[in-house]
Amino acid sequence: MRIAVLSDIHSNIYALDAIIDDLRKRGADLTLNLGDILYGPIAPRRTYERLMEQDYITIRGNQDRQIYEAAPTEIDSNPTLQFILQDLGTEPVQWMKQLAPSLQITDEVFICHGTPNDDLTYLLEDVSSGHPQLRPNHEILGLLGTIHSKVILCGHTHIPRSVCVSSGQLIVNPGSVGLPAYADSEPQPHSMETFSPHASYALVDRSKEGTWNVEFFNVSYDTDSAARDAVARKREDWGFYLSTGRAS
Question: Which of 1, 99, 175, 219 registers the highest number of CB atoms within 10 A of its CB?
Answer without folding.
Answer: 175
